Amino acid sequence: MQQAPPKHSTAENVAGIVIGAFVASLGLFLLKSAGVVTGGTAGLVLLVGHLVDWPFAVVFTLLNAPFVALAWRRRGPRFVVASAVAVALLSASSLAHASYLRVDMINPLYAALLGNLAAGIGILFVFRHHASLGGFTIVALVCQDRFGWRAGYVLLALDAVVVAVSALFMPLEAVALSAAGAVVVNLVVSANHRPGRYPVAL
């Protein structure tokens, strides 16, 4: 008889969500500093940031609101609370980066690769501790649960839409970098997070 998978402790879940949110926010800060958009809800926030001069944390929180009902219905209140905490931590971290970190010069290609790599690692941390960073990541997890689709592939499809829309407002070079970065972040997630691969339960 197969043994039940070991559970994360509460401390492990908290640590994983905190680390994931912080690392993801650092990646997004690098992208914003270089003027590069990524995919997903975060990419949509960065795109809006090119159009209106609002803080990242404010736009990110507002755009996440419509996804809360979906998460509550499909994954339950515990997941929603954990995800809300992760989103709040990401927003707070983004404000801290803006206050304490100055990036005077960063190559856009380097920022697209490193920023999206960090974002992917952060998302993976949060996923593995049974939370999300809101927005499209909730849609991806719901599709994975209901249809068996890999979350990384769902995110890649949604990211393609965001990058395509960004072509209406940004130079083609920045759009190309954004597309390459979206592939990076989703390769990280799809290669490391799939149904049944990670056996540790909540």
From TrEMBL:
InterPro entries: UPF0750_membrane, YitT. The keyword Oxidoreductase does not apply. Keywords: Cell membrane, Membrane, Transmembrane, Transmembrane helix. GO terms for cellular component: plasma membrane. Its main location: membrane. Pfam families: YitT_membrane (PF02588). It is a multi-pass membrane protein. It comes from the Bacteria. The keyword Transmembrane helix applies. It is found in: Cell membrane. The chain crosses the membrane at residues 12-31, 51-72, 79-103, 109-127, 147-169, 175-192. This is YitT family protein. It comes from Actinosynnema mirum (strain ATCC 29888 / DSM 43827 / JCM 3225 / NBRC 14064 / NCIMB 13271 / NRRL B-12336 / IMRU 3971 / 101).
